[in-house]
Amino acid sequence: MKNIQAVRGMNDLLPEETPLWRHLEDTVRSVVEAYGFEEIRFPIVEKTELFKRTIGEVTDIVEKEMYTFDDRNGDSLTLRPEGTAGCVRAGIERGLLFNQVRRLWYAGPMFRHERPQKGRYRQFHQIGVEVFGLDGPDIDAELILMSARFWRLLGIEDVTLQLNSLGSAEARAAYRGTLVEYLKDHFELLDEEARRRLDSNPLRILDSKNPEMQAMIEAAPKLMEHLDAESQEHFAGLKAILDAAGVGYAINPRLVRGLDYYAKTVFEWVTDRLGAQGTVCAGGRYDGLVGQLGGKPTPAVGFAMGLERLVAMLQEGGVEPPSAAPHAYLMAMGEGGLPAAMALAERLRDANPALRLMTHCGGGGFKGQMKKADKSGARVALILGDEERANGTVTVKDLRGEGGQQSLEQGKLTDYLATLP
Ligand code: ATP
Ligand code: MG
Fold this sequence. Notes:
Layout: H1 18-34, E1 38-39, E2 45-47, H2 48-55, H3 60-65, E3 68-70, E4 76-79, H4 84-93, E5 102-111, E6 123-132, H5 137-154, E7 160-165, H6 169-185, H7 192-200, H8 214-218, H9 229-245, E8 250-251, E9 263-270, E10 279-285, H10 289-292, E11 300-306, H11 307-316, E12 328-332, H12 337-351, E13 357-359, H13 366-375, E14 380-384, H14 386-391, E15 393-398, E16 405-409, H15 413-418
Parallel strand pairs: 1-5, 7-8, 12-13, 12-14
Antiparallel strand pairs: 2-4, 3-4, 5-6, 6-11, 7-9, 9-10, 10-11, 14-15, 15-16
Helix pairs in contact: 1-5, 1-11, 2-4, 5-9
């Protein structure tokens, strides 16, 4: 019979990979919590309508990437392709957003039916943050400063910040007219997708990756030159904070989102280390969304980062996660030694909850057990034989350094093990 395989584009993360994932997740979590963000968890499955309304009907995600199915009672449900929709839905439904400021973060798997390739999967993972109730450039800047701190702490170099402003909905509507006129003048250069979007979502045409359209897109009128006064001021405020903090950026007029509820700031952290899948973190302001979903109008800004791409950067940069190997591997020798060894192991764990101690299970002779001890990656083997039990000691054998061994009183083990890295 043929073995069952994982679904295409959905990865197992094996034990040799998870320490680096944990290092990334732990680092990000400690930073966001240090900035005062609180964690929120919401379901992996939501009503399909939610994503249609938040992400927009005329987007890659909703047009062709969603995992949508009918529930047994006929409701259309979708595996979440991103986190903002569920976060906003939960915020409105549970009264988190009303007349208050919220700084929230979330983490977890997302699902998009895309063509799997390096940096692009069908189940992937994001950590995202969303801030509700603040409309100034200060919080936009703080999100960017916080993300810059992730890269510093993780040792990720080679990422650059791209910035744009989408202006107000009104300024964008006016610009949209100018852009559509320009695109119509170059209709023969538009590919099929662009022609389809000309009416429904023309701004997204600027984001096209089709090489044959690049020159025409470069020459298109720029949204940045059509900003309303308030958005100009907001953008200047943001840049002033980034300049003062020494965070460099490049203005990218092609950084756009097509939908009306986006406003002002958009940004992406990009790298050229990952080939075509170069965006590791993308964010922006979506002041109109909460109101559009039925909540009281509430300004909002957030970002999401793709963990697969960040892990790839860590791997490429040779970043080593903190060791998760055991400090010690405990072996029992002699008739009836096992209960005493396991009792000793529990006492050692009681005394130091941070101790990583593996006990040998599965029997076997001294040589076989030593082999397992070595393979576990432990710093030392602890050997409890008949003689050691009789005189209350343990033989400690160094597995990594000189390979020497010594006899230690059991009562001194905890202090000794705490000295191991
Ligand atoms: P792209 O242009 O690469 O398709 P996107 O605009 O669809 O990205 P967002 O919806 O902004 O991406 O998601 C935020 C981040 O999540 C991306 O910058 C990326 O790091 C990551 N991401 C998005 N889709 C995938 C995927 N299919 N596989 C892995 N990571 C992804
Ligand atoms: Mg995409």
